[in-house]
Amino acid sequence: MRGEAVGGSIRYAAAAEEYLSTEGCYIQELSNSTDDEAVSIARARVLPGVTTRWHRLAGTTERYVIVSGSGSVELGALPPRAVGEGDVVIIPPSIAQRITNTGTTDLIFLAICTPRFDWDVYEDVEVHCAPPPA
After folding, report:
1. Which CATH homologous superfamily contains domain 17-128?
2. Which of these, 86, 91, 95, lies nearest to 113 by C-alpha position?
3. How far is Cα 49 from Cα 70, in angstroms, rounded to an integer?
């Protein structure tokens, strides 16, 4: 079978369709399968000027590995921090997070989750984290 090897497998990126997520970025699931419960890997793409919605993952640690572009990441109550190519953002379980593309080109990063990402652990917290109306 194509992609399978003795004791392992290959997941081809071309087989994964990119989709616009509810948090406002484009996602391509590179590896998220019940035969590898320990980890999932997705490619995220944020358009220039876009800020994703505040969200958190229950019981799941997420890492952003910035592949290209520049951004500003917000984690919980911490002040925004600039990130760029090669930086790694480690997000513990249940910490509210969002990222803004501050550049003029797409911000692209890998989102690596342990255990693997499941929509059951996702919580949109935009309403809870947004500043009060003026």
Report:
1. Jelly Rolls (2.60.120.10)
2. 91
3. 11
